[in-house]
Amino acid sequence: MGPETENGDHIDEFESGFLGDLIRPEDSGYDNARTVWNGMIDKRPDLVAQCQDVADVISAVEFAREQDLLVAVRGGGHNAAGLGTCDDGIVIDCSPMNWVDVDPDTRRVRVGGGATWRDVDHATQAFGLAVPGGVVSHTGVAGLTLGGGYGHLRRAYGLTCDNLVSVDLVTADGRFLTASEDEHPDLFWAVRGGGGAFGIVTAFEFEAHPIGTKVATVETWHSIEDATVVFETWRDFVETAPRTISGEAIIWGIPEDPHFPEEHHDDPVAIITAVHAGDPDEGEELLRPLREFGSPLFDFSGRIRYLDLQQGFDPFFPAGEHRYYQGSVYLDSLDDEVIADILDRAETRPDPRILYYVWNLGGAIADVPEHATAFSGRDHPYLLAIDGKWDDPAEDDAVLEWARSFQRDMQVHSPGEGYRNFPGLGEGGDAQRTPERDETDDRLVEVKDQYDPTNVFSRNHGVTPSESARTDGGAGDE
Ligand SMILES: Cc1cc2nc3c(=O)[nH]c(=O)nc-3n(C[C@H](O)[C@H](O)[C@H](O)COP(=O)(O)OP(=O)(O)OC[C@H]3O[C@@H](n4cnc5c(N)ncnc54)[C@H](O)[C@@H]3O)c2cc1C
């Protein structure tokens, strides 16, 4: 039973002061409002509160707390496990808050809690600036930043959360706080990698970097028969490349896209990419050996607009239309044996649209000491990520078993955890955390106890308050 039938007076009061839209199951926009990126997630919240501003967020949090509703917070709606929605309760949807303000002199960028990377790139590129974001532009800034954030600029400028200067946030008890190195530093530590467990971020303040509007890139597509030499060559290149260069080695099927001849659609391929964050002339020189390697089937390398780089993969991952799985495993190394084990799966993918890829890490990511933020795993040199995409529910078991067994088998080459923003479906079998608790886990619980002792923001990366905080109901932070 929804809040409107049980609590008519309360919802009327809530609605009368709410600037955005409140959408209920009987409303025509309901299906659109409840849809998230992963078409496998089919949740039916009682209410979607589409917030226009901070006041809306505060009243939505207060309403949810008073009515004891399950709360999901939504930014870009891309979390593959569906953390941005829920059954029954309330979705506090920040997506209307997608404003971006750039100060080109200080290179500070303030971003609303519901913006996407497309919004940020659009606003910053007018000044030749960039905030290191993700590699698909319709992804939300909020979830990506709160969980860490890897993108094309990662080795030059670190994780997205490393570029955070402050956040404005509404806590579980409806307070509005700013967290930075100087204000609520414990909270600021937690939101850089600890996920959305501590409050609703209404504004992110980032430092942007002067990368210009064009960057030098390599993107060559090779026959699957050459995959071993392709991966080994990419590995040898990135292991000695300067930190301005970040890249991926990818196994995929040629997509059904007009850029590719129809007779090759779905053929398995090995792709290598690299991006130079800096002067494009210098970048082209540095990238030349990688670009000139082998006999690619397709070569999309060159100097391209940063905006095009950021949006290049967008069409292949549309929201709401397909079933998706995103899992990952950090790798200790990418020696020849690891590459062989990775490539073993190239031909067994249950659907040609499934891709998997290795990101090189290090550089600025590893400059930050491990416990300086809540992000775990800064010293891992590589991340293997698996992106499943399919349509037929009858294929679910085959794809999930394939992806999970791949991650399980790669554990022998892994420190035992994965990137929490590639969460699988959030169920057992999706390797995301090491079983042992560490200093970061303990500190996250302390911050959770302080700011959300009753677990109002429970749809998060697995941070729950301690039993004693729940019992006390929390003393709060003054
Ligand atoms: C197509 C695609 C491409 C991706 N590419 C990358 C990539 O290049 N690099 C990378 O690091 N990751 C990438 N990801 C993973 C991405 O970081 C996560 O999916 C992330 O959760 C997306 O954030 P969101 O705001 O869109 O998600 P949502 O589903 O809206 O939210 C995710 C989590 O954040 C919380 N949250 C959302 N908004 C707020 C807010 N305003 N305040 C507090 N908590 C909030 C939610 O409650 C939830 O727990 C990609 C994902 C997809 C689907």
Short description:
This protein has 478 residues and is of the alpha+beta class. The chain is built from 16 helices and 17 strands.
How would you describe this protein?
The protein has 478 residues and is α+β, with helices and mostly antiparallel strands. The chain has three domains: 3-93, 2-Layer Sandwich (Uridine Diphospho-n-acetylenolpyruvylglucosamine Reductase, domain 2); 100-207, Uridine Diphospho-n-acetylenolpyruvylglucosamine Reductase, domain 3; 214-413, Vanillyl-alcohol Oxidase, Chain A, domain 3 (3-Layer(aba) Sandwich). Helices cover 28% and strands 22% of the residues. It contains 16 helices and 17 strands. It has helices at residues 3-6, 8-16, 30-34, 54-66, 117-125, 141-146, 154-157, 185-191, 227-240, 280-291, 306-311, 336-343, 364-367, 396-409, 439-451, 467-472; strands spanning 21-23, 45-50, 71-74, 88-93, 100-103, 108-112, 164-170, 176-180, 200-207, 214-223, 245-253, 268-276, 298-299, 302-305, 323-331, 355-360, 382-390. The strands form three sheets. Strands 10, 11, 12, 13, 14, 15, 16 and 17 form an eight-stranded antiparallel β-sheet that branches. Strands 5-6-9-7-8 form a five-stranded antiparallel β-sheet. Strand 7 (164-170) and strand 8 (176-180) form a beta hairpin. Helix 9 (227-240) crosses helix 12 (336-343). The protein is globular and about 70 Å long. Residues 1-5 and 428-432 have low confidence and may be disordered. The chain binds flavin-adenine dinucleotide (FAD). Belongs to the oxygen-dependent FAD-linked oxidoreductase family. It comes from Natronococcus pandeyae. It holds the Pfam family BBE. Residues 40-211 form the FAD-binding PCMH-type domain. Its cofactor is FAD.
